[in-house]
Amino acid sequence: MRRIAMRKSLATGLVMALAVFFAACTPKETPATTVSGEKVYRVAFMLNTNLGDKSWADSCGRGMETVARTYSNVETKFVEAGDDRMSWEPALIDLSEQNWDLIFTSTGDMQEILERVAAQYPNQKYVFFDAVVDAPNVYSIEFKQNEASFLAGALGAMITGSGINGTNPAKIIGAVGGMDIPIINDFMVGYISGAQYIDPEVKVVISYAGSFSDPTRGKELALIQINMGSDVVYQVAGGTGLGVLQGAAENGILSIGVDSDQAATLADGDPRTASRIMTSVLKNADVMVVQCVEKFLSNSLTFGKADRLGVAEGAMGIVKNANFDSLVPREIRDRILSLESEVRNGSISILSALSIDRNEVTRIINSARP
Predict the structure, then answer these.
(1) Which of 39, 107, 202, 227 could form a disulfide with 157, with the two C-beta atoms 3.0–4.6 Å apart?
(2) Helix 88-97 crosses helix 111-120 at what angle (to 10 degrees)?
(3) How many CB atoms lie within 10 A of CB 246?
(4) Residue 35: strand, helix, or coil
C-alpha cells in the first residue's frame, strides 16, 4: 500500500511539475484588470543602454516615472538592456511576449531590431524614438535636434572671443559626439549652422568618441579641442559627454549639455562641472513619453505613422536656468530668445543632416574646422 501511495504521490508531483513547466513556457495572456472600475494599462520602456548618463537615458526614465505618478490606472516597467547589443533583441522580444499594451524603445541602433520584432508580434503596439519603423503597429517620432542645436551654436558663436571669463581671442568652439551617425550629425550640422549664422568666421571643431559610455575618452577629446583654442564645448555623447563637461570645467571653459538640464542633474554630485554648463539642448524624451501615453489612453495615438517634432512642438529646446542667467550676458540671452522664437515660427530654415547625403555632411563639418 505504501508503494502504491508513493507511486500516486510521485505521479501527482510529476503532473504538477509538468503543468508548471508548460505554463512557464506558454506566452502570458494578461487579463485586463481594473482599479476603481478603470482598466489598468501596461506600459513598458526598453532602453538599449543603462540609466545614469544624466542625459538621454535618464530623460526616458523620468518620462516613465512621470507616467507612473500621473496615471493610477497605468502599470509601468523600465528595462535597462545595457550596452551589449546582443542583449537588445532578446529584451524586446521578452517584453513583447508579456503582452504589454504599449512598449517604447529608442535610438537608430534599434531600428532594424524593432522592424523584425514588430513584424513577429503584429498585435503588440510600439512607440519608437529617433528613427522611423514603417509598420502598422509602430508610431515613430524623429526629433528636430538640428533646431535646438542651432541655438546652441548661435550661443557659442556669441560667447567665443567675447572676453567673458574662460574665453580667449580665437573664435573657435567645439562639439563632441558619441558616434559618427546621422542622428548625432543632425546635432552637429545644426550647431555649425547656428554658429555661422551669427558669425561666418567662427570655426567649429567636431570630434567623435566612438562610444556613448566612455567619459574618459570624452574628457580626452574635450582637452584636445580646448588645446586647439575652443572656449565653448558642446557634448552630444550621452555618458561619454560627462567627461566632456568635466574636462571643460577643469579648464575653466564654458560648456553646453544635452538631452537633460545637465546643470541640474550634476548639481549635487559634481557642482564644479555643473557651474560651467551655461545651458543644455533639451531633447525632451520625458515629455514625449508622457504625451504618447496620454494619446494612447485616449485612443488618439496613430500607429503606422511617423512625426518629426521640434521646437514648435515642445520636443526640442534649450534650458533657461540660473546658469543661463548668470553665465550669459543679457544681450546674448535676448538674442537667443529672439532666435528661438524665429525657429519656432519657421522664419529661420535650418539644414538637417537627415535630409542631405553623407558626403555633404562631411563637407559641412570639414569646412567649419579651424
Answers:
(1) 202
(2) 30
(3) 22
(4) strand
Give the count of alpha carbons within 13 A of 128, CB side only: 30
3-state secondary structure (DSSP) of residue 203: strand
Query: Pairing state of beta strands 74-80 and 41-47?
Result: parallel
- Please name each of the domains of the chain with its CATH number: 34-143 (3.40.50.2300), 145-283+313-368 (3.40.50.2300)
Q: Walk along the chain (370 residues) and give the pLDDT tens digit of each residue.
A: 333 333 334 344 433 333 333 333 333 333 344 445 679 999 999 999 999 998 899 999 999 999 999 999 999 999 999 989 999 999 999 999 998 999 999 998 999 999 999 999 999 999 999 999 999 999 999 999 999 999 999 999 999 999 999 999 999 999 999 999 999 999 999 999 999 999 999 999 999 999 999 999 999 999 999 999 999 999 999 999 999 999 999 999 999 999 999 999 999 999 999 999 999 999 999 999 999 999 999 999 999 999 999 999 999 999 999 999 999 999 999 999 999 999 999 999 999 999 999 999 999 999 999 9
Element containing residue 25 per DSSP (H, E): helix 2-25
Strands (E), the chain: 34-35, 38-39, 41-47, 74-80, 102-106, 126-129, 138-143, 172-177, 203-208, 232-236, 254-258, 277-283, 306-309, 316-318
Cell of 152: 546652441
User: What is the rounded distance in angstroms from the CA atom of residue 293 to the CA atom of residue 29?
Assistant: 22
Q: In whole angstroms, how far apart are CA 184 and each of 47, 155, 160?
A: 18, 19, 23
pTM above 0.70, yes or no: yes
Cell representation of residue 280: 543644455
d(CA 220, CA 226) in angstroms, rounded, equals 10
